[in-house]
Amino acid sequence: MGRSTPFTPETLGHRWDVSATTIRNMCLQGELKHFRLGRLYRIPATVVEEMEQCQTSASDVSGADSASIGMKVASEDVIALRHAPERKPSQKR
User: Fold this and answer.
1) Rounded-to-integer distance, Cα 4 and Cα 32, Å
2) Tens-digit pLDDT profile for residues 3-25
């Protein structure tokens, strides 16, 4: 609990057992408070502790016994697919 240095997406992803990309997406979607140093994302330790407290208290209230220690992220359950634009046949010369 005494950590004062901010987390990187990689270190927080390892802690929460998700990918660094998931952490970056949470930041971009506004689900996770963060700050930027140039192109680098940093998540304050206090924000991480608050989220973990919310997750812990929410699971305590629900009464669900779970062996999972990772966080459930709704965005991981969705796969977005897009169609490539149709190609026009090339004309032979």
Assistant:
1) 17
2) 688 999 999 999 999 999 999 99
Would you say residue 62 lies in a domain?
no
**The three-state (H, E, C) secondary structure of the chain, written as one string:** CCCCCCECHHHHHHHHCCCHHHHHHHHHCCCCCCEEECCEEEECHHHHHHHHHHHHHHHHHHCCCCCCCCCCCHHHHCCCCCCCCCCCCCCCC
Question: 5 is in which domain, residue-wise?
Answer: 1-57
pTM of the predicted model, to two decimals?
0.57
Q: How many domains does the chain have?
A: 1
86 in any annotated domain:
no
